[in-house]
C-alpha cells in the first residue's frame, strides 16, 4: 500500500477516536440521555421531548459509538492487507499474535493497573479479584458484571484480541468456501444472535450485545474491503453525492424502531465501508485538518485507553468556571480543552510506551526464533 494511503488510515483513526470521545462527552454532560427512544407503532415520536433532546437525537456525534465499528473495520482491513502483501497461503500465527500482543497489551496493562488501584485496592474483595483477573486475561467482555467495570472503554480491547484469535478461522473459511461465503457466515451468526434475542429477551444483556459473535462481521467487512482493494476491485461504485445520501438514509432509518434496535450497527458498518473505499479511490490531498487528524490518529489508541474514567471529573472542573451557565460556545471550548489534555498525555504514551513496546516485541520474538533455529 502506498504511504499516502497508510496516512489516510491514520486520518480515519483520528475520526474514529473523535467520534468515541464525543459520544462519551455527551453521555457525561447529558446524564439523563442523549436521544429519544420513544416509538409509537414502530415510528419515532418527539411528543413531549425537549428541543435539545430532539437536536441530539439527530446530531451525528450522538452516534459516536460507531467509532468502535470504524476502529474494527480499520483493524480488519490493515491486518488482512498485511497478510495479502506477504503473498502466502500460510499464516505465521506466532509472529502475528506476537505483533498484535506487543502492540496493544503493554499499554493496556499499565492503564489497567492505574485505573484498578487509583481509587482503592480492587483486590480487597473476591469480586474485585475476579474483575481484575478477567481484565488481565482479556475475558471481561464475557461477563455482565465486568464488561463495563474499571474502565468502560476496556470492553473493546478484549473484543479486539478475541478477533485476532479468530483470524486463522477466517483464513480457513476463506480458503474452503470463499471470501463472500465467509462474510455471509459471519453475517448469519450476527443475525442469528439477534433472532435469539427477539425470541428469548433474557439474552439481551451486555455480555452478549458486546460479544465477538456480534462484531465478527464488522471486522470481516474490513478484511473483505482489503482483499477487494488489493485486487483492485470495487465493492461499491458511488460518488460523493450518493455517499451523502446514504449517510442521510441512516438518520431516516433512525426514525424506525426495528432499524434502531436490530440494524443500525450493521448499517453504519456498511456505510463506513462505502466511505473508506470512496476515500481510497478518490483521495483528497491531506490538508491542515487532515494532518491534524493524522496526529490524533497516531495517538488514538492511548486516547481511547485513558479518556473515559476521568472525563466527568474534568467536565465538572471546567464547569466551575462557567458562571453564566452552559452555553454552546463555552461547552465547545471545554470540549476542545479537555481533548487537548488527553491528546498531550496520549502523545507521550505513544512515544514513550507504544512505540518502545512494539520494538521490544520484535526483539523478544527475534530472540525466540533465533534460539529455536539453534536448537534444530
Automatic annotation (TrEMBL):
TM region(s), chain numbering: 12-39, 51-84, 105-123, 154-172, 179-200, 206-224, 236-253, 259-280, 292-311, 323-346
InterPro entries linked to this entry: Acyl_transf_3_dom (IPR002656), Acyltransferase_3 (IPR050879)
This protein's record includes keyword tRNA-binding: no
GO biological process terms, semicolon-separated: polysaccharide biosynthetic process
Keyword annotations of the record: Acyltransferase, Membrane, Transferase, Transmembrane, Transmembrane helix
Pfam family, one: Acyl_transf_3
Superkingdom of this protein's organism: Bacteria
Keyword NADP: no
EC number of this enzyme: 2.3.-.-
Gene Ontology molecular function, alphabetical: acyltransferase activity, transferring groups other than amino-acyl groups
Domain Acyltransferase, chain residue ranges per copy: 8-345
GO cellular component terms attached to this protein's record: membrane
Protein name: Acyltransferase
Organism whose genome encodes this protein: Xanthocytophaga flava
Organism ancestry: Bacteria, Pseudomonadati, Bacteroidota, Cytophagia, Cytophagales
